[in-house]
C-alpha cells in the first residue's frame, strides 16, 4: 500500500520542504494551507508538474470542525494515514506587557490546540491503515527553552507541543504510532521578517553558531524524514534540536 502523509502548513517554508522530501520518497502527501490559496496552488501545481503525488487540502486548524472535516476528506479519499507532520504555526510577536487576550487566544488556538486536535483526529486514520510504521512529528523551536525578544506567546505554545509530544508518544505507542518533535533554531525562512533588525540578527547568529551558517529548511526536513522511517522506532517522545550548535554556546 502506498504511504499517505499530511503536512500542515506546507504551501511554503519548512512545511513545503518537508512535503517535497516525503513526495520524493514516494509518499502521497496532502499539502495543507489555510489562507494564501494562490501560494498553495502554485506549490501544488509545481509538484504535479514533477509527477509527484500531491493533494491539496484547506483547513483552519484553529477551528475543530474544520479539522474534523479535513480528516474526513482524507478518509474518504485515501482511507488511512501513515504520517502526520504538525508544522502549521502562527502567532503574535509582542512584549508581555503589550499582549492582549485575543493575541493569546489566536496564538494558542492555532499552535497548541491545533496541534493537539490534528493529532487526536489523525489517530483513527493511522489505526485504519496497515500495521506498518506510523509517525507523528511535531515542529517546534528553540524559543520554547531560550529567550527570544517578543516570542513569549509563540515560545509558550512550542513548549506545550514539546510536552504534548511526550504524552502522545506514550499513549499512542499501543497503536503503533511513534511521536517525536524537531526543534529548529534560527531557520532561514520568511519568519525572520518579524525581527526588526533581521540582517543584524542573522549576522550575529552566524558569528557564534559552531556550524558557521544559518539553519536551512532542508536541515529540519532531513531529520523529519529520518523520524518517519522505521529505523527510528527506538527514538520516542524526544525533542531533537537542529540549530547548528547554537544552543551550546
TrEMBL record:
Instruction: Show the InterPro entries listed in the entry.
Output: NAD(P)-bd_dom_sf, SDR_fam
Q: What is this protein called?
A: SDR family oxidoreductase
Q: Does the keyword Oxidoreductase apply?
A: yes
| Family of the protein in this entry | Belongs to the short-chain dehydrogenases/reductases (SDR) family.
Pfam families cross-referenced by the UniProt entry: adh_short_C2 (PF13561)
Q: Which PANTHER family match?
A: OXIDOREDUCTASE, SHORT-CHAIN DEHYDROGENASE/REDUCTASE FAMILY (AFU_ORTHOLOGUE AFUA_5G02870), SHORT-CHAIN DEHYDROGENASE_REDUCTASE FAMILY PROTEIN
Source organism: Lacrimispora xylanolytica
**Coiled-coil regions in this chain?**
none
Question: Any idea which UniProt keywords this protein has?
Answer: Oxidoreductase
Amino acid at each position: 500500500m502506498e504511504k499517505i502523509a499530511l503536512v500542515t502548513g506546507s504551501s511554503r517554508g519548512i512545511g513545503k520542504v518537508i512535503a517535497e522530501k516525503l513526495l520524493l520518497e514516494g509518499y502521497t502527501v496532502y499539502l495543507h494551507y489555510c489562507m494564501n490559496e494562490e501560494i498553495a496552488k502554485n506549490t501544488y501545481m509545481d509538484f504535479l508538474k514533477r509527477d509527484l503525488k500531491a493533494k491539496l487540502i484547506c483547513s483552519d486548524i484553529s477551528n475543530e470542525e474544520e479539522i474534523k472535516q479535513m480528516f474526513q476528506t482524507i478518509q474518504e479519499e485515501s482511507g488511512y494515514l501513515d504520517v502526520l507532520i504538525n508544522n502549521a504555526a502562527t502567532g503574535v510577536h509582542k512584549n508581555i506587557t503589550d499582549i492582549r487576550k485575543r493575541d493569546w487566544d489566536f496564538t494558542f488556538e492555532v499552535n497548541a490546540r491545533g496541534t493537539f486536535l490534528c493529532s487526536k483526529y489523525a489517530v483513527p486514520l493511522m489505526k485504519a491503515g496497515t500495521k506498518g510504521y506510523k509517525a507523528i512529528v511535531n515542529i517546534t523551536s528553540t524559543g520554547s527553552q531560550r529567550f527570544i525578544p517578543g516570542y513569549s506567546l509563540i515560545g509558550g505554545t512550542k513548549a506545550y507541543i514539546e510536552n504534548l509530544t511526550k504524552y502522545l508518544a506514550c499513549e499512542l505507542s499501543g497503536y503503533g504510532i511513534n511521536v517525536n518533535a524537531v526543534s529548529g533554531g534560527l531557520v532561514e525562512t520568511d519568519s525572520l521578517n518579524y525581527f526588526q533588525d533581521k540582517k543584524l540578527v542573522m549576522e550575529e547568529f552566524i558569528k557564534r553558531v559552531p556550524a558557521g551558517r544559518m539553519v536551512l529548511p532542508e536541515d529540519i526536513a532531513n531529520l523529519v524524514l529520518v523520524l518517519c522511517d522505521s529505523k527510528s522506532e527506538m527514538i520516542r517522545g524526544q525533542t531533537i534540536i537542529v540549530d547548528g550548535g547554537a544552543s551550546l554556546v
